[in-house]
Amino acid sequence: REPKHWGTPEEALHATFGFNAFRGVQDDVVRRVLAGLSTLAVMPTGAGKSLTYQLPAVMLEGTCVVVSPLIALMHDQLRSARANGIRAATLTSADMDREATIEAFRAGALDLLYVAPERASQPHFRELLSRARVSLFAIDEAHCVSEWGHDFRPDYRLLRPLLDLFPEVPRLALTATADAHTRADILAQLGIPDDGLIVAGFDRPNIRYTITGRDQPVQQLKRLMADNPGPGIVYAQTRAQVERLAEQLGATGRPCLAYHAGLAPEVRAGNQAAFVASEDMVMVATIAFGMGIDKPDVRFVAHAGLPKSIEAYYQETGRAGRDGDPSVAVMLWGAEDFVRARQRLSEVDPARLPSERARLDALAALVETAGCRRAVLLRHFGESPPPACGNCDNCLEPPGVTEATVTAQKLLSAVYRTGQSFGLGHVEKVLTGLADERVVERGHDRLSVFGIVSAEEAQLIRPVARALQARGALLATEHGGLRFGADAKAILKGDIAISVVVPPRKERSRRQRGGS
Ligand code: ADP
Ligand code: ZN
User: What is the reported pTM?
Assistant: First the structure.
């Protein structure tokens, strides 16, 4: 593989992209690839992953074959590569010019060829590769190859046999999101040596993280919008929630659009274009929104509900502040989010259950911590951050931590004695001694747990319930009641202590005035 262009990587960088310098680890990745060494590059969104294969693609003789999971992503990449004068094409079922692409590939007239993973298993594709000259295999979104990753795609497992047919062609796997376990798995699955791992720093110091209970979401989001006049994204979980929130937030007079997979493609494209062009718009969207959007001045990203994983949270919040200016990421969560997530675990393929459960526990730890959010995030990605960042809610206003094991035990006893079938509202009445009709009718006013929680301790019931649900000690019944989960008995016995995070005073009094 002789260089096509005479010159150093820096010269080629300048000539092809007009950039004066590599950013972060780009340099290391490109040098390894040019030396013919297989590499796994873990670089956060926005760190400039595409350049690490596009530049070698330009410099090396032959074509770089890029495996990418989504046609929409491929087409974004294609446009930007071509805009830089790179000879690129996609080979997908959606392309009409497949014959011409194959012709160009065979003739060595392509720098880059984007394909979907399923093509790898097609015999005629293998044959095509063996009759062309391949300079590099770039495997984008490489975490898809791992069952430990958050987005496993069985098709990615078909790549290895293909790669092994071309042992002399280096492999470059790329991902934005991979914890230590997933990284090791990607290396093994794709046959990349352990010393081929290059990890870029994950910290986004200009993003301020805030994670708080979802008490009055619309009010909370309106306050966030008032504090942040620049463009923002609000992620909601369902299409209906997106529609409703877009309307409610739009009532502030701020331009607000909706984006979800249920909208017609031209509406989606129109809304996305309007957002990219706008300086003050709020996009209310499902997580379908954001991939491949290059808008550097997003000032806030809010989650109206629990994200799918820490990886997803990091990726979604990472769309804020790509220009490096101060930006905020706010997550509003409720116990019911964890209840639903734990219910979904019961539908998961048993083989994937341990990793899915670990993923949810990691998310619960992020949400429940009284310590630095950034430290939790960065440790999750294998870094060793300082214990406090000074730019997250818990660093800026340290919350109180209250020992609440006894309250947790009272709550669990009440759940147990009322038969593990009532919701939190009912259990709370029993605990605080509120003998309404339903309580009396069931005889719950005669239970030993009736009225055992004082008015002051009652403040802790909801935070404790939230903590127990987040860690899976309390689960939901089909009818929205509470029942025991894994740790409930150990907590009752006193083997596990429970403490809850109490929000800083200012926040607390504001919430109380709101009266939820
Ligand atoms: P990723 O795929 O890692 O999310 P991209 O490859 O989309 O990131 O790059 C993010 C942005 O950074 C793009 O606008 C790209 O042009 C820009 N970029 C990448 N490398 C450099 C560089 N060395 N100097 C300046 N800008 C760069
Ligand atoms: Zn912090």
Answer: 0.71
